[in-house]
Amino acid sequence: MPMLILFITGTAPRSQRARSNLGKMLDRLNLNDVKPFEVDLLEQPDQGIEHGIFATPSLLKFDSSGEVSILYGDLSVEERLQKFLSDLD
Amino acid sequence: MQNDEMKLQKRKTGIVSLDNVSEGGLPSGQATLVLGQAAAGKTVLSLQILARAIERGEGGVFVTFEESPAQVKRDVASFSWGEKLLTSERWQLIDARPRFGAEAAGEFDIEGLLSIVGAAIAKTHANWVVFDGIDQLLQYQPDPKVAIDQVRRINDYCESKGWTLLLIGKAMDESLAPAHLEGIEFLLSATLVLSARVVGQQLNRSLRIAKFRGSRHVADELPVVMDDDGIQLPYHEYLPTAEVVASNERISTGVSRLDKLLGGGIYRGSSLLVSGRPGTAKSTLAGSFAEAAARRGERTLYVSFDEIESPYVRNLTSVGINLRDPIDNGLVQFVDLSAFALRVTEHFLTLRRLIDTFDPHCLIIDPVSALLKASGAEGATMATEHLIDLVRRRGITTLLTSLSGVGDPEGEATQGQVSTLADSWIVLDYNVRGGERNRSLSIVKSRGSAHSNQERELLLSDAGIDLADVYEHGSEVLMGTARAAKVREDAVAQRHRKLEREQRRLDLQRQLEQAERERDLFKAKLDLENAEMAETDQLEDSFREDIRQRRDPEQENPDEPSNLDAVNDKAQWQ
Lengths: 89, 574
Prior knowledge:
The complex is a heterodimer of chains A (89) and B (574). Chain A has 89 residues and is an alpha+beta fold. Chain A is 35% helix and 22% strand. Chain A has a single domain, classed as Glutaredoxin (3-Layer(aba) Sandwich). In chain A, helix 1 packs across helix 3 (78-85). Chain A is globular, with a radius of gyration of 12 Å. In chain B, 41% of the residues are buried. The mean pLDDT of chain B is 84. The interface between A and B is medium-sized, with 35 and 28 residues. Strand 4 (68-72) of chain A pairs parallel with strand 6 of chain B, so a sheet runs across the interface.
């Protein structure tokens, strides 16, 4: 079962943009059943160490084979995001 | 008060030499950029600073963006301070390497990183933070301006939290910023640049404080030695101390006639250079100096380059110099080093550590010119200058020998500026004449001493070194057999002259004595004659009176007693 985790830091503009960009893309790709988890590193810094995430926002993807991929940034580059999510359907 | 608050606060790195050149450490509560090529020692430097901080009871967080935590731990384990650091709980190592195959789709923040570090610091009460290779993360930032802003953000955050941050990045050629982060050197108040260059097939490391806003610092490129203790700046371990008091005490070179020529020996705490071609007895003179020091009960650090202890000591024994006993009883520490084995700066560090541990009164380096064979981009001048400065400050009387070539008495010594730096300079040489080679000694300079300008012949025997006055013959000086022959010839001639004079004196003495004897004889004759003449005169007088009386008609025959009375009566009445 694929899984997405979006790492954010509080209400930082880039984090908010990423949340919105990810939602829009999931909509566009008809992946409405995929519910990304959100981890706020300001509240759970240990999660950052556990997953090796130090930049926010970052999107972490566990695919069905358990492989982990990461996409840094506010997800404003649509084609990158689309490609990143392409194997989720 | 306000001034104190405004003033730049520094935090000691615990690396004594770095604290010296930065005049107290790195800016406290701010970021320092540490740049360098691969293998320049950036990571080691930061780990060493952490280790020293932990020894002082401080703490730290090390965030690695490039090397694996296992690799960092292996780095740590190879140093003398590693064990303590690895077992300490006052620091945390965070693996922040970007994942393999990571991509970016837009700009990102580093607030998460700061939050994670903040949490770690809360646990370890750290005040040191190291970001090793943050460019590995920031290179994913599409816009370099954003990346630079984030370095500023990190700096501000550290300042607000009071963390002292080392931001480590790879130097790109001549640039003072890591790739992708051009311009951050202007943001941060301090920048250290480490470099590693291959010169003469050997790696030469150096460190430079490229920037230190609001603080005095040594701005030169400083040679770095990396050994078991980590990174060292060998020439800056000690700050120049207070004025060195110049001693008026003279100490013996072990050759009493040489001491006389030097005005009583060399000053305690001064340096003496002995230069000469191979076989001119430089080592013998050095050995004699050490032996004399041992006789005074003083410690001598005896450093031999390229010649090992046992043959060296044996060779000295053959000329009557005993180093074996002082070595055995600890007054002489003999150290043989190989000039080629280390770089010149490493040799300096070795020598300095030996001086630190043995605390000698006297130091011998035989020959110091071997240092010139050791490679090093910084050259031998720096090593010899610092060495002479060090021994002068410590008051260690130093004898350096130096090998010179034919017709070039200064020889290699001048390359290291030793002859300029040393207080006294003796040149040993040999003269070839009449089928033999004779050693000579002359004093080229001796600061603060009236010294002989004469060249002397240096004599080696199984009783040690002695000096002979050379024989001046016209404009030439004679040595060896020629001197001996001339001396003998002159002595014979002199003996001849002396004998002749004695003979003449004796002759004259004899003549004088003879004359005196004759005089006495004549005088005796004269006395005799005088006596005879006086007697004759008296006899003649009385005879004449007798006749006169006999002829006086009024007188009776004076032969009759009555007449004699009458004469007396008459004399009474007259």
